[in-house]
Specification:
By secondary structure, the protein is α/β, with parallel strands linked by helices. 40% of the residues lie in helices and 18% in strands.
Length: 368
């Protein structure tokens, strides 16, 4: 009996090790491609994306005496440690914890910003931003319009970790950018790495419209670059062309940038074709001019995002491309995305638009 139990334990142990090993291999569905070009000259230092975001908030708190950072567990750095050390540096009056109430966090931030302060609010996971949805879309987004420009809460920036992380399941892996893109008066931004995150976050904090800054959480520590130490911003509403080619336009944002960079290289190595690869960066407003100019040149367009297909932001881009580039298109616009299901846990690798799904669709697009 003892021998049988020992054998079963060994089998279970090997099975567990196999499952754990697979989970490690599958926890990241992309290879990270660091940015090599710097937006400004001068000293740089190696930072991951968490450190770059921390650096942007440190600069803001240092240079803007009205700036306040708050959210659930922010006092000791937040669940992902993006605010690490800032309370010790600037005090509990400027960096502090809030109750577990997203609606209250957003409402408090709107009040602060309307009163003239610079408010940086952290929602612990983007999945839990929905209790604050009414405050953000009915109050923050409309304050300037409903007052005829007499007041606004444009000094409000709401940060939220989003997207797949390898083990998050249905409540910690969602990508809610399309919900907010339907709201005039907001800005919605998604960075692809440390350099972009610092420049875009500083731009959001100084923007007159309230901003939703969605941070792909899997990049916090997996993404590392030589980031400029000095203050800099990147333009909001402007896409970046990361690769140039002639055969197709690949369009993405956040983590999918790195997926499609790998696809672009695969296409060049295996098919002998080159593509334009565009990081949208700003979801609202988005850079229609750069996208449409590219599609008119290449004649084909593939859009990839982690969020579900139906009413994902790729649908808006596809509709605009169809309207503006119809006579230039050589194939229907292609979308590769998450599926129209809740975000799964153990089946996450089958849900995500990885390089193989994107490459397969690119081949079909080229052969249409």
């Amino acid at each position: 009996m003892t021998s049988l139990l020992t054998q079963k334990s060994l089998v279970i142990g090997k099975l567990t090790k196999y499952v754990n090993d697979c989970a490690k291999r599958l926890s990241s569905h992309f290879i990270y491609y660091p940015d090599n070009e710097k937006p400004i000259s001068g000293e740089t230092t190696k930072m991951n994306m968490m450190q770059a975001i921390n650096n942007a908030m440190d600069i803001t708190l240092r240079d803007d005496p009205t700036a306040v950072l708050f959210g659930e567990d922010v006092g000791f750095g937040g669940v992902f440690r993006c605010a690490l050390g800032l309370q010790d540096k600037y005090g509990k009056d400027r960096v502090f914890n809030t109750p577990l109430c997203e609606q209250g966090i957003a409402g408090f931030g709107i009040g602060l910003a309307t009163a003239g302060a610079t408010a940086i609010a952290e929602i612990q996971f983007a999945d839990y931003i929905f209790p604050a949805f009414d405050q953000l879309v009915n109050e923050a987004a409309k304050a300037r319009y409903r007052s005829g420009g007499q007041f606004d809460c444009g000094a409000l920036t709401v940060r939220a970790p989003c997207g797949a992380v390898g083990h998050g399941g249905l409540y910690h892996s969602q990508s809610p950018e399309a919900y907010f893109a339907h709201t005039p008066g907001l800005r919605v931004v998604v960075p692809r790495g440390p350099i972009a995150a610092k420049g875009l976050l500083l731009a959001c904090i100084r923007e007159r419209d309230p901003c939703i800054f969605l941070e792909p959480k899997i990049l916090y520590r997996s993404a590392t670059e030589e980031v400029p130490v000095d203050d800099y911003t990147l333009p909001l509403g402007k896409a970046q062309v990361l690769r140039e080619g002639t055969s197709a336009t690949l369009l993405c944002w956040g983590t999918q940038v790195h997926v499609l960079l790998e696809v672009a290289q695969m296409a060049e190595d295996q098919l002998g074709v080159t593509v334009d690869l565009i990081d949208l960066q700003s979801i609202l407003p988005w850079d229609e001019e750069t996208v449409c100019n590219s599609v008119k040149k290449t004649g084909r367009c593939l859009i990839s995002h982690e969020a579900p297909l139906t009413c994902g932001f790729g649908a808006e881009v596809a509709a605009t491309v169809q309207e503006e580039c119809f006579l230039h298109l050589e194939a229907p616009v292609c979308r590769v995305s998450g599926w129209d299901t809740p975000f799964p846990h153990v089946f996450e690798p089958f849900y995500l638009p990885d390089r193989w799904r994107c490459y397969e669709q690119l081949v079909k697009l080229l052969n249409y």
